[in-house]
């Protein structure tokens, strides 16, 4: 008969006492011989430190005297069962030794009709290590679960083995529906699928992955832009895996696009403004000056022959010159009104209101406080454009202009009781105002329900300088 390999034949009857003693001595764990009545009959320890009581207080004592009740009970119960069933019993218990909680495993083997052997192994350290490992695992799991980044674990074929909550939520697909599919089959927008697949194959063939950007389709059909990176990892069995980590950059992309569009609008607004100036100069002052030159020329010619005619020409020149002067002043006022720089926002806004043929109420604080020139001119142009629109489109009876600081912003509000329906279009008056206000980090709102009047509100941060 061949003994099972774990026994190695040591328990055969042929084993001599010497061999048994050698075996006992070789075992590093404390060993106790205990009667089924719970009384210690013998023991072997490498060091007295392994005993809970002095060495002379072991033999003849009972397990109940030496051990906490729950441990004594467990040992005795296991011992009696080992004797009755002739089977090795295994128990686990914890107890305090010198103010320290320690974990033990006990093996209990019958060694006679009324006694058993208890072999004790201290596995406190192993438990501690396991606890540390478990804590590390829990920590990693919590990080993966709570990170706002998208995480997906794939094998070397790109097949999904797991995704985190953020990815489940963004795609609106529960984890179990991802598993087993190649990652490019889900969530990635159709046009980006071939590229995602090629990128993965290239990475698997050894090319450094870098950052790649794909479009994705969310649960409501919304488009998301995600930047992905990949890291090579190995799972617990050592198998090669790729951890794909995605960052949702949709909002950043949209903001970049908005800045690009606003920049384009500013450039084209600048061009349009230059053209308007050119046209105004051409049609206005330039024409007057041409006439002045012409009149002076004619006056010079008739000065000696017909002084009366010459005087007429000079008078004409004077009128044209005065008109040209007026034109240029008007033009300059349109660029930056003098009253604004000299007297401030209050008087400048009141002057605008005063020119309107309808009743305009102006509410400002004082005329002493001054703001940053850029804030003042933005506020002024908001009022000017909104009042012009009111007169042009609103068919309003009255309008109100409010300019007042509140916390860290200057609030500019223009309301009318007209027909409503104002909408900022690109490049036009209101769109231009929005760009101007947003360029100063302010906000611009248009509230203009049809038939319900118009309220336009700009908030301009004051912190940019005073
Ligand atoms: N107060 C208002 N009441 C009713 N409709 C308005 C009002 N303000 C603007 N609108 C409507 O909104 C549109 C857009 O105004 P916006 O000032 O942006 O452009 P515009 O006045 O048409 O052109 P621009 O200002 O470049 O001369 C106007 O064409 C007009 O139809
Ligand atoms: Mg307008």
Secondary-structure element pattern, one letter each:
HEEHHEEEHEEHHHEEEHHHHHEHEEHEE
* Structural class by SSE content: alpha+beta
- CATH-level-4 superfamily name of the largest domain: Histidine kinase-like ATPase, C-terminal domain
Count, helices: 14
CATH class of the largest domain: Alpha Beta
Number of strands: 15
- DSSP strand (E) fraction? 15-25%
Task: Walk me through what this model shows.
With 466 residues, the protein is an alpha+beta fold. It folds into four domains: 17-123, Beta-Lactamase, CATH 3.30.450; 147-248, Beta-Lactamase (2-Layer Sandwich); 255-335; 338-461, Heat Shock Protein 90, CATH 3.30.565. The protein contains 14 helices and 15 strands. The protein has helices spanning 17-26, 63-66, 69-85, 124-146, 165-171, 175-178, 193-204, 250-283, 285-302, 307-335, 338-343, 345-355, 373-394, 429-439; strands spanning 31-35, 40-44, 89-97, 100-110, 115-122, 150-154, 160-163, 212-217, 223-234, 240-248, 359-364, 398-406, 409-416, 443-447, 454-461. The strands form three sheets. A five-stranded antiparallel sheet has the order 2-1-5-4-3. A five-stranded antiparallel sheet has the order 7-6-10-9-8. Helix 13 (373-394) links the parallel strand 11 (359-364) and strand 12. The longest helix is centred in the middle third of the chain and has 34 residues, at 250-283. The radius of gyration is 46 Å and the shape is elongated. The chain binds adenosine-5'-triphosphate and magnesium ion. Residues 389-390, 393-394, 416, 418-425, 428-431, 454 line the site of adenosine-5'-triphosphate.
């Amino acid at each position: 008969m061949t003994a099972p390999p774990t026994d190695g034949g040591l328990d055969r009857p042929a084993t001599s006492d010497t061999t048994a003693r050698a075996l006992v001595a070789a075992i590093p764990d404390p060993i106790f011989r205990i009667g089924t009545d719970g009384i210690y009959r013998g023991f072997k320890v490498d060091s007295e430190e392994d005993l809970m009581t002095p060495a002379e207080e072991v033999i003849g004592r009972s397990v109940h005297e030496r051990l906490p009740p729950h441990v004594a009970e467990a040992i005795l119960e296991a011992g009696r069962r080992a004797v009755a069933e002739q089977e090795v019993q295994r128990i686990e218990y914890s107890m305090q030794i010198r103010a320290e909680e320690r974990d033990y495993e006990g093996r209990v083997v019958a060694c006679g009709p009324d006694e058993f052997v208890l072999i004790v192994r201290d596995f406190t350290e192993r438990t501690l290590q396991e606890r540390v490992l478990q804590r590390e695992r829990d920590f990693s799991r919590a990080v993966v679960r709570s990170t706002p980044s998208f995480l997906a674990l794939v094998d070397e074929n790109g097949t999904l083995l797991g995704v985190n909550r953020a990815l489940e939520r963004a795609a609106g697909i529960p984890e179990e529906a991802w598993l087993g599919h190649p990652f490019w089959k889900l969530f990635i927008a159709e046009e980006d699928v071939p590229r995602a697949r090629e990128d993965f194959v290239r990475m698997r063939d050894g090319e450094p992955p870098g950052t790649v950007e794909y479009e994705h389709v969310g649960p409501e059909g919304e488009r998301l832009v995600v930047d992905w990176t990949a890291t090579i990892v190995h799972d617990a069995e050592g198998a090669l895996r790729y951890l794909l980590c995605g960052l949702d950059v949709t909002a950043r992309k949209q903001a970049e696009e908005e800045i690009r569009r606003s920049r384009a609008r500013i450039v084209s607004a600048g061009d349009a403004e230059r053209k308007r100036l050119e046209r105004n100069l051409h049609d206005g002052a330039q024409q007057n000056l041409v006439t002045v030159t012409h009149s002076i020329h004619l006056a010079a010619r008739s000065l000696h022959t017909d002084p009366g005619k010459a005087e007429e020409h000079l008078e004409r020149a004077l009128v044209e010159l005065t008109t040209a002067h007026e034109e240029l002043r008007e033009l300059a006022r349109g660029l930056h009104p003098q009253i604004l720089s000299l007297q401030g926002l209050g008087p400048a806004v009141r002057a605008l209101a005063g020119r309107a043929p309808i009743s305009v109420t102006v509410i400002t604080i004082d005329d002493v406080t001054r703001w940053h020139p850029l804030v003042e001119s933005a506020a002024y142009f908001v009022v000017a454009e909104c009042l012009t629109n009111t007169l042009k489109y609103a068919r309003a009876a009255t309008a109100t202009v409010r300019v007042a600081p509140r916390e860290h912003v200057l609030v500019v509000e223009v309301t009318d009781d007209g027909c409503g329906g104002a909408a900022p279009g690109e490049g036009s008056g209101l769109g231009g105002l929005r760009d101007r206000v947003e360029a100063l980090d302010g906000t611009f709102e248009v509230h203009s329900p049809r038939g319900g009047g118009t309220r336009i509100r700009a908030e301009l941060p004051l912190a940019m300088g005073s």
